[in-house]
């Protein structure tokens, strides 16, 4: 909250429905942006049929975003499972102001997304690589 950015009212409701996969929120992911340097809002939603690659493709190459994805994977012992993962996308190629705004506002959105235990910071596409970067972190919580 150091930046004064607040979380939009619909973000909390949508997240709680998403966790339970209820109603219109049977989705794969959300991408959040900061609107007018004041409010965190839902920018995009990914249908349940979308993949992790679709999620990454929806992140802008040169601007910051927050993302939340219901990631399905197999544990090391072969069990199918899923985890909700929060990703802070803060690319090195973004301008300094948005990087500072998103970094300073991250706690505001994390406080609304209660129960999400996996938080990942990514600054370039190699840090979003599913096999090399994301799954090794997520599997620690499986």
UniProtKB/TrEMBL annotation:
**What's the family?**
Belongs to the actin-binding proteins ADF family.
For this protein, the record's Pfam families field holds:
Cofilin_ADF
Extract the InterPro entries matched here. Answer: ADF-H (IPR002108), ADF-H/Gelsolin-like_dom_sf (IPR029006), ADF/Cofilin (IPR017904)
MF terms in GO: actin binding
What SUPFAM superfamilies has UniProt attached to this entry?
Actin depolymerizing proteins
* Organism of derivation: Cyclophora tenuis
Give the source lineage, highest ranks first.
Eukaryota, Sar, Stramenopiles, Ochrophyta, Bacillariophyta
Task: Give the GO cellular component terms, alphabetically.
Answer: actin cytoskeleton
Q: Name one GO biological process term.
A: actin filament depolymerization
Say yes or no: keyword Coiled coil present: no
Domain of life assignment: Eukaryota
For this UniProt record, give its keywords in alphabetical order, as a comma-separated list.
Answer: Actin-binding
Residues annotated as domain ADF-H: 3-138
Instruction: Kindly provide the name given to this protein in its UniProt entry.
Output: ADF-H domain-containing protein
The record ties this protein, via PANTHER family, to: COFILIN-RELATED (PTHR11913)
Transmembrane parts of this sequence:
none
- What SMART domains does its record include? ADF
């Amino acid at each position: 909250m150091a930046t004064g950015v607040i979380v939009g009212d619909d973000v909390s409701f949508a997240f709680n429905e998403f966790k339970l996969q209820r109603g219109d929120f049977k989705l794969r992911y959300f991408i959040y942006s900061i609107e007018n340097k004041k409010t965190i809002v839902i920018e995009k939603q990914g249908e349940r049929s979308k993949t992790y690659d679709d999620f990454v493709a929806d992140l802008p190459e040169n601007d910051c975003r927050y993302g939340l994805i219901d990631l399905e994977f197999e544990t090391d012992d072969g069990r199918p499972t899923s985890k909700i993962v929060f990703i802070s996308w803060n690319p090195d190629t973004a301008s300094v102001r948005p990087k500072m705004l998103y970094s300073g506002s991250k706690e505001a959105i994390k406080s609304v997304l209660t129960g999400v235990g996996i938080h990942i910071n990514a600054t370039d596409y190699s840090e979003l690589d599913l096999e090399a970067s994301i799954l090794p972190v997520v599997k620690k919580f499986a």
